[in-house]
Automatic annotation (TrEMBL):
Residues 23-93 form the DUF7344 domain. It holds the Pfam family DUF7344. It comes from the Archaea. This is DUF7344 domain-containing protein.
Length: 110
């Protein structure tokens, strides 16, 4: 099994993620857009509302429905694999980088 380190902004390894898990996480187009938005943020954290706007291209989307979907589906998956910390009370997502995730995203057509 191949593993990749997930690191914080100081370069310290938080945990590892295996290749199969990365591909499962990136299999969903909405999660790819979500992760791409997190990859591009300067300080590795975003409020959920801003993340939804940055990762949504459909202008007629129901933002509350999308927020529920992110809260109950996508964010828990990313949190379980160590890519994010999601503070639901502060509505803030903290992203941790994984080189394999960035490499796979770079090869996809967002």
């Amino acid at each position: 099994m191949n593993e990749c380190q997930i690191v914080d902004e100081d370069g310290y390894a938080r945990c590892t993620c295996d290749t199969d898990a990365v591909f499962r996480l990136l299999a969903d187009a909405r999660r790819r857009k979500l992760i791409a938005a997190l990859e591009s943020c300067e300080d590795d954290q975003l409020p959920l509302s801003k993340l939804i706007r940055q990762s949504t291209t459909d202008e007629q989307v129901d933002l509350e429905a999308r927020k529920r979907e992110f809260h109950h589906v996508h964010l828990p998956m990313l949190d379980d694999h160590g890519l994010i910390d999601y503070d639901s009370e502060a509505d803030l997502i903290r992203y941790y980088h994984c080189e394999l995730v960035a490499d796979v995203l770079a090869m996809t057509d967002l």
